[in-house]
Amino acid sequence: MVYVIVGIVCSLIVYVIMCYTNLVKLHNIAKEQWSQIDVYLKRRANLIPNLVDIVKGYAKNETDIFESTIEVKDKILNAKNEREELEANKDLSIAISKVFSLADGYHELKSNTNFLDLQNNLKEMEDKISYARGFYNDSVFKYKNKSDIFPTNIISKILEFETMPFFEVADNEH
Predict the structure, then answer these.
(1) DSSP state letter for 162
(2) What pTM value is reported for the model?
(3) How far apart are CA 111 and CA 84, in angstroms?
(4) Among 148, 129, 172, which residue's Cα sits nearest to residue 36?
(5) For residues 28 and 171, what is the distance between their CA atoms, to the nearest angstrom?
(6) What distance in Å separates the CA atoms of residue 123 and residue 121, rounded to the nearest whole number?
(7) Which domains does the chain have, with CATH numbers?
(8) Distance (Å, rounded) from C-alpha 96 to C-alpha 48?
(9) CA–CA separation, 84 vs 78, rounded Å?
(10) CA dihedral 26, 27, 33, 39 (to 10 degrees)
(11) Which range has the worst mean pLDDT, 27-31, 55-59, 89-93, 127-131?
(12) In the structure, what pLDDT confidence band is assigned to residue 52 with cuts at 50, 70 and 90?
């Protein structure tokens, strides 16, 4: 009888260790995917002052758009966690689209080579963010499933594994 109890206890310990290891592995994969996105978001944010400076030279009366765009850029760079950075990213996407909409009204600006280069750099960065978002969301999905399904959810709650947000697309992005 003692051997049966010891066997059950050992089996439970091994199972808990396996669940913990899987949760850590999936969490680390999602964190690594986030770090890729974080690099792209910061690179994109660092392009914003150049964009604002170029467009500001042509559209001098639109200071509120420029100021809000710079404020949102600063939110990304000063974000304390993924959730704050994701929210700021949504706002930055909206702000960038406003700046580009404003630029559409200035023919000389649309033919400015610096503006066109910056626009291409931002487009390339958006493509990289979009690509990385797919991998990140897939990793978060796997981690979330593993940590929410019984009996692993018990281990996840006891060991206080953090939840991770999905990277959702802002309404104006496709």
Answers:
(1) P
(2) 0.80
(3) 36
(4) 129
(5) 29
(6) 5
(7) 2-158 (1.20.1440.20)
(8) 8
(9) 9
(10) -170
(11) 55-59
(12) confident
